[in-house]
Design goal:
single chain, 648 residues, alpha+beta, six-stranded antiparallel beta sheet, five-stranded mixed beta sheet, elongated
Length: 648
């Protein structure tokens, strides 16, 4: 190519990069000022109105789609942060409980705000009168609705109370799953409600009330919104339980004759409970972990509290604690289930402390609730990071973003270094699942385990082609083969199933050459398929492990590497000693592996041929004349001899 052509191509490349940057500029401004989604169409419309070139319009369209993806991710993160912040704030309110009405009002207000509903309200059962009444409302405008008292089992709340499960109706007046009454329907009609979601307030396995969120228009409540309202309901029930406990304590103190002695004792207990609540709130606010919670409760309860995984806790005691919502005694220990939305996340175990008063028991239970919130927050953050890692690897595989600076910045935020040497690994589960749901669940487990491995190794991971692809850095002295085998073992242990892993040869400078990732992934998949065809499922390998087949599997056709691995020691011996082992080998195979014909071909004594072949055996191994080895050795000899003129 002439110098003028080169300079022209360079100017075109620079212009294209500048064009892409200019196309992104208006959307970056929209992102910076938090503009609405509709606003992102304006730069494209203006460009068309101005008659700008089609290439410019396409660049704007691509930049718009990317900006909308970023905006959606930012909005999702802000929403999750707002939800967790509200839950933590509510837990803090509960920890310093002074006014039950104020805490319940705050719970209902936050539930309405985060779910974005017109109305939120909380009803409680009245065991004395045998009915249910409105305790707190937010956003209500109808007096009759605010003063409703319902018979047990009536309305949507009655259905929730009977089943102890959340229920949602898209159209209240058209729903016949629950008992309609004139009083309830009149109140709902006055308020103008259409879509209603109700979740139970549980103390143990008893329903004490219902928390509702409702809209004055038809609406479908998402699963995440139902779970969020359930979390608020759990906090409301805890607040009521705490208030009841305080009420019972005050009543007992008033009735007992030894008031002074009991007041002092109870005061010390409550002070301890208040202390742990303050500590837990402080831990949440400063971002502490589950083991920090256990350590804080250990100090207050003067014992050893540990967080354990669900699989290692006593199963029967753990299930009872989860079902009843209370800590239960197990031998000399106390077990408090750590659960959220019906999912068992683990347990807090108080060791060797059989005597535990009710307030200390409540303290252990509150610590379990705070632990569940911390685990949910950690899971949410981990899932967000996994998605970001997967998106970067997807962009590298599809070569969508070719700006080395932006790629390096994105990788740096994930503690990954694209300038270091990496290996691309294709991983897939070995066994076939019984049905589609089980297969999807198994793939999610594989992706989760791969994402965790990538995060700990400063790499990237993404789900692709029914399996998972990983981009992991290659440490000095390590090989692609060793990394593939370690990864297969690690993932197999994590998902409790055999996992096959095919690896590419090492790749370098990925920020400047993102298309190399796609080529390396294709090589890794070929190795993966070769392992399965050779009956080596559940193993890990790279192209270098397959002998001459590796030449077909490898993306770069490393002929010199194959020759060196196969007969390199014989070539090196000839070079050091001035011998003719390579020529002898070539003649030996050309003569049908007959020593007698070989000595005639070389014009040497047959004993000389035997001595040379014995030396070859010591260099290549005793099995060098097996069919598989001879095929590889003959191919390596041909390739070596063909390359010899280039060396002379």
């Amino acid at each position: 190519m002439s110098r003028d052509h080169v300079q022209s191509a360079e100017r075109s490349g620079a212009a294209a990069a500048a064009s892409a940057s200019d196309a992104e500029a208006p959307f970056l401004e929209l992102l910076a000022r938090g503009a609405s989604a509709d606003s992102y169409e304006q730069p494209v419309l203006h460009a068309r109105a101005e008659g700008r070139p089609a290439e410019w319009i396409r660049a704007l369209e691509q930049a718009k789609l990317l900006a909308l993806r970023v905006r959606s991710e930012l909005e999702g993160r802000r929403r999750r942060e707002a939800e967790l912040s509200a839950l933590f704030a509510t837990a803090h309110d509960l920890a310093g409980l002074r006014d039950l009405d104020a805490v319940l009002q705050a719970i209902v207000q936050r539930a309405r705000s985060l779910l974005g509903t017109d109305v939120a309200y909380l009803s409680l059962n009245d065991p004395v009168r045998g009915d249910t009444y409105m305790r707190v409302t937010e956003g209500s405008v109808a007096a009759r609705f605010q003063q409703l008292r319902l018979g047990m089992g009536e309305g949507l709340g009655g259905l929730v109370a009977q089943t102890a499960r959340p229920y949602v109706t898209d159209d209240y007046f058209e729903d016949d799953r629950f008992q309609h009454t004139h009083a309830i329907d009149a109140g709902v009609r006055d308020e103008g409600l259409v879509a209603i979601l109700g979740v139970p307030l549980m103390l143990g396995h008893h329903v004490i009330g219902v928390l509702f969120a409702a809209d004055r228009r038809a609406r479908v409540f998402e699963r995440e919104q139902i779970a969020l309202l359930g979390s608020f309901a759990a906090l409301a029930a805890a607040a009521i339980d705490t208030a009841n406990l305080l009420t019972e304590t005050r009543s007992a103190l008033a009735d007992l004759e030894r008031a002074n002695e009991i007041i002092q004792d109870r005061s010390g207990v409550i002070e301890r409970a208040s202390d742990v609540h303050d500590r837990l709130a402080e831990l949440v606010l400063r971002g502490g972990g589950v083991h920090d919670v256990a350590a804080a409760v250990s100090e207050v309860l003067d014992g050893t509290v540990e967080f354990t995984e669900a699989a290692t806790a006593p199963a029967e005691a753990l299930e009872v604690s989860r079902a009843e919502g209370h800590a239960v005694r197990h031998a000399d220990d106390w077990i408090a289930a750590v659960a959220a939305g019906g999912e068992l996340l683990g347990a807090l175990v108080l060791r060797g402390h059989p005597g535990l008063d009710p307030v200390d028991q409540r303290t252990l239970e509150r610590a379990a609730m705070v632990t569940s919130l911390l685990l949910l927050a950690r899971r949410s953050a981990a899932e967000a990071e996994q998605r970001v890692r997967g998106e970067l690897l997807d962009d590298l595989l599809d070569a969508r973003d070719r700006d080395p600076r932006l790629l390096r910045e994105r990788a740096s935020r994930l503690h990954a270094d694209l300038d270091a040497g990496h290996v691309v690994l294709a991983a897939r589960l070995v066994g076939a699942a019984a049905d589609a749901d089980q297969e999807a669940a198994a793939r999610r487990r594989l992706w989760s385990a791969a994402s965790h491995l990538a995060a700990t190794r400063h790499g990237l991971a993404a789900a692709r082609d029914g399996g998972t692809v990983l981009l992991l850095p290659l440490e000095p002295g390590d090989t692609a083969t060793e990394l593939a085998r370690r990864t297969a073992r690690h993932l197999g242990t994590a998902v409790h199933e055999a996992v096959t892993v095919g690896a590419s040869a090492p790749v370098e400078d990925l920020a400047a050459h993102p298309d190399a990732v796609a080529a390396a992934y294709a090589e890794g998949r070929r190795c993966l398929d070769a392992l399965r065809l050779l009956g080596r499922s559940g193993d890990g390998a790279a192209a270098e492990d397959f002998g001459f087949l590796g030449l077909l599997l490898a993306g770069d056709r490393d002929i010199a590497g194959f020759v060196d691995r196969t007969i390199g020691q014989v070539v090196a011996y000839d070079e050091r000693r001035g011998t003719d082992l390579v020529r002898t080998l070539d003649a030996y195979f050309a003569c049908g592996m007959s020593p007698a014909r070989t000595k005639d071909e070389l014009h040497v004594h047959v004993n000389t041929v035997a001595q040379r072949l014995e030396r070859v055996g010591r260099l290549l191994g005793d099995d060098w004349q097996s069919p598989a080895r001879t095929l590889e050795i003959q191919l390596a000899l041909r390739l070596h001899l063909l390359s010899e003129p280039a060396h002379h």
